[in-house]
Q: What sequence folds into this?
């Protein structure tokens, strides 16, 4: 079920929908997902042909997905496990497959303090999630990187276990934040009906990590962020700040957290950055 959401026949429609990124979005949320040093213990793989495969984290309790069922771009999870030398879990382990960007509706669940942070920073309908994770090309001697692997523009926000259960049943969809699998405090589901998907291939444009640094040090593109050099505290809504604003370096290793929120009302050029990522990589 891990198949590409956006097909080439619908490309023109997708590009038309991207107009919303220029006009509606007020927040861009860089959201860390997939295998990490604690859950999974390995980076997700970048294959020698450039294909990427984001490995979802394990889930100890019952979940709608096992790793064995996941496939993307004709790549099985078994092949991805072999490429990344995964040992913490096996193909019959349950996984927390979230975000789910492969069904007819894009879904992303959040809960607990992480959801409170999104709500407190006024993340709302029209805003854009850019999902990134820990990746490595195991065929070359290169360091690990943070790489953007997917996106979701919010059309609806559904809060509470009862309403989430009702929505998923009505739409005949599955998701690990369905309370029949696990009950979460502050449970919230972000819905995309049009503009969402997964990137198939590695590209430098999708790479957040700055050359010559550890993966937590990012370099934003000067073309889009140059007007934000002196308004870092207004652009960065939480957790991050300029490390070297003249080189557009941002240190993300400033404490635990999943979401890094950009207030793009302060610099509309950053919206164009997000639009270019999607337009140039689908």
A:
């Amino acid at each position: 079920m891990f198949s590409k959401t956006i097909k080439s026949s619908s490309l023109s429609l997708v590009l038309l929908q991207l107009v919303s990124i220029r006009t509606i979005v007020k927040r861009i949320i860089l959201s860390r997902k997939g295998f990490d040093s604690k859950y999974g213990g390995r980076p997700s793989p970048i294959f020698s042909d450039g294909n990427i495969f984001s490995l979802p984290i394990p889930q100890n309790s019952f979940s709608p997905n096992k790793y064995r069922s996941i496939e993307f771009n004709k790549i099985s999870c078994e092949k991805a496990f072999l490429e990344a030398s995964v040992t913490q879990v096996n193909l019959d382990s349950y996984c927390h497959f979230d975000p789910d960007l492969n069904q007819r509706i894009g879904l992303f669940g959040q809960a607990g303090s992480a959801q409170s942070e999104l709500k407190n920073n006024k993340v709302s309908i029209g805003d854009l999630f850019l999902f990134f994770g820990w990746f490595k090309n195991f065929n070359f001697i290169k360091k690990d990187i943070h790489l953007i692997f997917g996106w979701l523009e919010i059309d609806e926000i559904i809060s509470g276990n009862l309403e989430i259960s009702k929505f998923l049943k009505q739409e005949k969809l599955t998701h690990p934040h369905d309370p029949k699998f696990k009950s979460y405090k502050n449970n919230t589901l972000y819905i995309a009906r049009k503009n969402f998907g997964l990137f198939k291939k590695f590209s430098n444009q999708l790479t957040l990590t700055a050359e010559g640094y550890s993966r937590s040090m990012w370099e934003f593109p000067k073309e889009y962020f140059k007007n934000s050099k002196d308004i870092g505290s207004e652009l960065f809504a939480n957790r991050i700040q300029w490390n070297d604003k003249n080189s557009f370096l941002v240190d993300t290793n400033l404490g635990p957290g999943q979401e890094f929120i950009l207030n793009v009302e302060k610099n509309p050029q950053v919206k164009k950055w997000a639009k270019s990522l999607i337009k140039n990589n689908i």
